[in-house]
Amino acid sequence: MSQTIELKLLKIINTLVVCGSVKTTAKLLNLSPAAISYSLKKLRDITGEHLFIRTRTGMKPNATAYELSQRYQKYFATDVDISHNENQQNENSLTILSYSPIEMLLSESIASLAHQPDKYRYIFLPYTINVNERLDNLVNKNAYIDIGAELPQDKAVSKVKLFTSNISILTSVHNTEIPAEVSCADLYQAKHAIWSSLGDYYCENMQVSGEVKKYIQERDVAVVSGSIINMVELCARSNYIMLLPDIFIPLFTQAFAVKRLKLPAELKMKHDCYIHFNNKMTENPIMTRLIDDIIHSVRTKFTSQSP
């Protein structure tokens, strides 16, 4: 990021990332909440981005906000009280970069962890499909964990396969245009909604590979979106269909009027998901134990939910 940003604005961003609350940030910096809001508007004009998303658990920073916070911590952190809070935050937080269904799975898994440290904070950053950006985030420690498609080898990063999932069709429970036993011809006639954040599906033999490539290239794509929630809602309200790893399907069949249908055998596909982490993580036994618990919890959930 090349923008020149005043130190006081960087300090506000850093404090808000650390504490997650406009009110607390104002109190720590001896400012009014209105002054914090004005500063965020000023930063939005400078960066062209909404740096935080308001959630039930506080203000969630995006990748740019986190980068600005890191910039402040690296070059300008001199205030004793704030530095103390930042160090405490760094010791008791886990920054994760992944796509939304993984966040949903992790949210359920984290809540049930047996050895979760007290007052631990999980920061989920917005996902990017750019492989180089994902790897850079890990190497530069903007994110300590990346969960998604396999990344290229890097000496600073390690990886563990989280799961392998079959791919199925998701469609409305009211869709009468597609039969329960789906054929290739049925798929070519259907309109597809595509979730653009995930498309790294593969098959396990050459014959299937040819059919899958033809299907992917020639299917009737009606809508493409980076929001899986929007795509699932669209499928629930129409006769559109979408492809999705089986592990995620129970998350949506419980909340939306959608159902799972099997792909025909000629188009059998899979998806591999990996958890990548900066090697520095292994130096922290608490963090290492936490990651192992998360891996075990997600795998257990996958086994229990697999159709």
Chart the SSEs and their pairings.
Layout: H1 7-19, H2 22-29, H3 33-47, E1 52-55, E2 58-61, H4 63-75, H5 80-91, E3 93-98, H6 100-111, E4 121-125, H7 131-139, E5 145-148, E6 157-172, H8 184-189, E7 191-195, H9 206-218, E8 220-225, H10 228-236, E9 241-245, H11 249-253, E10 258-262, E11 270-278, H12 285-305
Parallel strand pairs: 3-4, 3-5, 7-8
Antiparallel strand pairs: 1-2, 5-11, 6-9, 6-10, 6-11
Written description of the protein model:
This is LysR family transcriptional regulator. It is a single chain. With 307 residues, the chain is α/β, with parallel strands linked by helices. Among the domains are: 1-74, Winged helix-like DNA-binding domain superfamily/Winged helix DNA-binding domain (Arc Repressor Mutant, subunit A); 164-271, 3-Layer(aba) Sandwich (D-Maltodextrin-Binding Protein, domain 2), CATH 3.40.190. The chain has helices at residues 7-19, 22-29, 33-47, 63-75, 80-91, 100-111, 131-139, 184-189, 206-218, 228-236, 249-253, 285-305; strands at residues 52-55, 58-61, 93-98, 121-125, 145-148, 157-172, 191-195, 220-225, 241-245, 258-262, 270-278. The strands form three sheets. Strands 3, 4, 5, 6, 9, 10 and 11 form a seven-stranded mixed β-sheet that branches. A two-stranded antiparallel sheet has the order 1-2. A two-stranded parallel sheet has the order 7-8. Strand 1 (52-55) and strand 2 (58-61) form a beta hairpin. The longest helix has 21 residues, at 285-305. The model is unreliable at 76-89 (pLDDT under 50).
Spatial separation of the terminal alpha carbons: 45 Å
Question: In terms of per-residue confidence, which ranges show pLDDT below 50 for 5 or more consecutive residues?
Answer: 76-89
User: What value does the average pLDDT take?
Assistant: 81
CATH class of the domain at 164-271: Alpha Beta
Report the CATH architecture of the domain at 164-271.
3-Layer(aba) Sandwich
Structural class, from secondary structure content? alpha/beta
Q: How are helices and strands ordered from N to C?
A: HHHEEHHEHEHEEHEHEHEHEEH
Portion in helices = 40-55%
**Discrete helix count:** 12
CATH superfamily label of the domain at 164-271: Periplasmic binding protein-like II
Largest sheet: 7 strands, mixed
Strand content: 15-25%
The count of strands amounts to: 11
Mass-distribution shape: globular
Which radius of gyration do the C-alpha atoms yield?
22 Å
CATH-assigned fold name of the domain at 164-271: D-Maltodextrin-Binding Protein, domain 2
